[in-house]
Write a structure and sequence with these properties.
single chain; alpha+beta; Purple Acid Phosphatase, chain A, domain 2; Immunoglobulin-like; 2 domains; 7-stranded mixed beta sheet; 23 strands; globular
């Protein structure tokens, strides 16, 4: 038997803690789409920031400890130095000033500005304001300990179209602590800074939770971040790495450790770093060092168990995910990883729990397949015995961590629940 709850039981349970109102009426079976802006951001005029408003491309991410830091980034037509970010605790009167660094945003006349704020308190709400502006924005740090449930959203393959805008809105209504995007953020292909700029404008305007807080974004690279889809030259991912080289300063994979309870391991499926060799060695070391962590989730772009592309190659070439299945999946099994987030195929999928590609109730669950804003029809799902469920739906997934248990709810682009499942830690030292 799969470790999956019926949707009715799940929605009725207080364990999940996601109010139906946060899903919108569609979660109750209604079919209305969420209200959209009068124009999709992709069609808005460039540089339309209102006087005194925060930069319309501003977003939050992390380079280091999410419990005590935050990184603020934005694009600016002002190329001069001297910008800073002012920060205070909510309802406090004393603001601290943090200088921003600046760098060229390639192929444009814009300047990228970045400010990493350190020395914050865990699980605390703050206000921030960019100098030369008046608008006050809000954010909160991650908790150092998982004494309460922790909720985040994930997906991939976004773009800047209508479906991406709808899913941004669905995701933000879940009040997540952060959002993870598993590659192919803007579809700029390493060549179109205007496309990436539009993606950031969408994110800034739509990824704000119900309490008015900005939702930080973390990500890993996909093929559409890189000119040509794959390269060992970081210069071929100028838009993506302009913003994310704070977390990926030398290599395009890394781990985000949150408090003492959660590690998100983000990998590169051959877009800027080869899968074999150094990256796989790093993965083995990283998983081994985190064996005592309650929650370790791995995420990357190209799936080991695709829902659309073929696992079998042709003309002597390997199929999709061959190296991941050969080199990475045995490590997931050895180190008792419960959940892997995959993308790239533009459908929704949930695998069976798998060991060596076969059903095993104690195996690894592979979830996602990247349809935040892009979509494909299903392709012979009945011939993929490793799949428990697949559908042609745009979706985001809400993840809720409670004790040793994780709940995963897939929501489509009108807010309907399309799948519910749970994973439970297999680590005996944590189960007691």
């Amino acid at each position: 038997m799969e470790n999956v709850w019926r949707r009715r039981d799940f929605l009725a349970s207080s364990l999940m803690g996601i109010g139906v109102s946060s899903w919108g009426g569609a979660a109750c079976g209604q079919s209305e789409s969420p209200a959209l802006p009068t124009e999709v951001a992709a069609a808005t005029e460039q540089g339309a920031t209102k006087q005194g408003a925060a930069p319309e491309t501003l977003f939050l991410t992390w380079q280091r400890d999410p419990t005590t830091t935050i990184t603020v980034q934005w694009l600016d037509q002002n190329t001069s130095a001297g910008d800073s970010v002012l920060v205070t605790k909510r309802d406090a009167s004393t603001w601290t000033r943090h200088p921003a660094v600046r760098r060229a945003y390639q192929k444009t006349e814009l300047t990228l500005k970045r400010c990493e704020i350190t020395g914050l308190e865990p699980d605390t709400e703050y206000q921030l304001r960019v100098s030369r502006t008046k608008e006050i924005l809000r954010f909160r740090t991650m908790p150092a300990q998982a004494t309460d449930a922790i909720q985040f959203v994930s997906g991939g393959d976004s773009g800047i179209g209508k479906a991406a805008v709808q899913n941004n809105q669905i995701a933000s209504r879940q009040n997540p602590r952060f959002a993870f995007l598993g590659g192919d953020l803007a579809y700029d292909n390493g060549r179109s800074p205007d496309t990436f700029t539009t993606f950031l404008k969408n994110w800034h305007s739509q990824m704000v939770d119900a309490d008015g807080r900005l939702i930080p974004m973390v990500s890993c690279p996909g093929n559409h971040e890189v000119d040509g889809g794959a390269s060992t030259d970081r210069a071929n991912a100028p838009q993506y790495l302009s913003f994310f080289d704070g977390f990926y300063p030398e290599r395009s994979y890394g781990v985000l450790d949150i408090g003492d309870y959660f590690s998100l391991v983000m990998l590169d499926t051959g877009h800027l770093s080869p899968i074999a060799g150094e990256q796989t060695d790093w993965l083995e070391k990283t998983l081994r060092e985190r064996e005592g962590r309650q929650h370790v989730i791995v995420a990357y772009h190209v799936p080991a168990y695709p829902s659309y592309r073929a696992t079998e190659g042709a003309d002597g070439k390997p199929g999709t995910g061959h190296l991941q299945r050969t080199l990475w999946c045995p490590l997931f099994e050895r180190y008792k990883i419960d959940l892997v987030l995959e993308h790239h195929d533009h459908t929704f999928k949930r695998s069976h729990p798998l060991t060596n590609g076969l059903y095993d109730r104690h195996g690894v669950l592979y979830l996602g397949d990247g349809s935040w804003g892009k979509l494909r029809p299903l392709n012979e799902p009945s011939l993929r015995p490793y799949l428990a469920k697949a559908s042609s739906d745009n979706h985001v997934t809400v993840h809720r961590l409670e004790g040793d248990t994780r709940f995963h709810v897939a929501l489509n682009d009108i807010g309907r629940v399309t799948d519910v499942c749970q994973t439970v830690s297999k680590r005996p030292s944590l189960r007691g």
